[in-house]
Amino acid sequence: MAIIDVHSRSAVRTTALTHCPEHHVHMLAVQRGSWTVSGPHDRDKSTVSVGRFILRHFRHLALAETAPHTTAKVLGLPSETFTPLFRKRGIAGATNTAEMRLLLAHANMVQATMADLHPVGVHAARGTLVELAIAVVLGRVDDSEPLLGPALAQAAKGIANSRLADPELSPAMLARELKISVRTLQRAFAATGESVNTYVRHRRLDEARRALSTLSGHSRVSEVAAHWQFADSSHFTREFKKRFGRTPTDYARSTEPAEH
Question: CA angle, 111 as apex, 106 and 117 as ends, to 5°?
Fold first, then answer.
């Protein structure tokens, strides 16, 4: 198996015939730009645009062409597992589905921790990657699979981080986005040592502290509290002091530039 990140500043075009490993199918997920691949004599030509992916078994590649500033992730997956699951031409789809979000979140997590993993951890990471890629092909996640817990939590954190100021952010909303039950989501977070609500509250407090460092005055505290979805200034002050050891007003004052 392989996980490869691709970043191209300028357009890239290769025309040399490349032999692909027989034991791999390739998943190409484009996060920016576009990527075109084809076999000899332009057979089986496919262009993958931003926000899309393709999963195919390429025996030979005669063309690989990217647009300027293309960012993509390439996964090499075991062909004996995936070839029976799709037709010869493979499958394609969007990268914003729950299954692809989970797969990409897990791939990123594996890349970040691989150097520190014990062989048993490597085996588990590989198994989870295969299970999530199968979920992409089938369009559903087997949320009873215990190996998927870390990937579920990581994907939920990614969604939460992008919507911290959203008043609708909740365990139920995250579970809907990932097409799993709230109980499954809570179980995945429990393995990390904190609840979904605790994670969201701490991340909101982190962002509020960052906002306070650029503001001053008590009147601003209520605005920051409201933006990061705290019920009122009193609640915000209690939670902020519990996490950082000082009130929001004290923190804002401590970051004000000294007067000369």
Answer: 95
User: In the chain, pLDDT over 70 holds for what percent of residues?
Assistant: 85
Candidates 2.30.42.10, 2.60.120.10, 3.40.50.300, 1.20.1070.10; CATH matching 1-94: 2.60.120.10
Residues of the chain within CATH 1.10.10.60 domain(s) are 198-254
pLDDT attached to residue 19:
65
Report the chain's mean pLDDT, rounded to a whole number. 84
- Give the DSSP per-residue string, 194-240: S-HHHHHHHHHHHHHHHHHTT--SHHHHHHHHHHTT-SSHHHHHHHH
Q: What is the arithmetic mean of pLDDT over 113-139? A: 84
Q: Which fold has domain 198-254?
A: Arc Repressor Mutant, subunit A (1.10.10)
Confidence of residue 205 (pLDDT cuts 50, 70, 90): very high
Residue with the larger pLDDT of the pair 64 and 186? 186
Residue 181's region, left for phi above 0, alpha for psi from -120 to 50, else beta, is beta
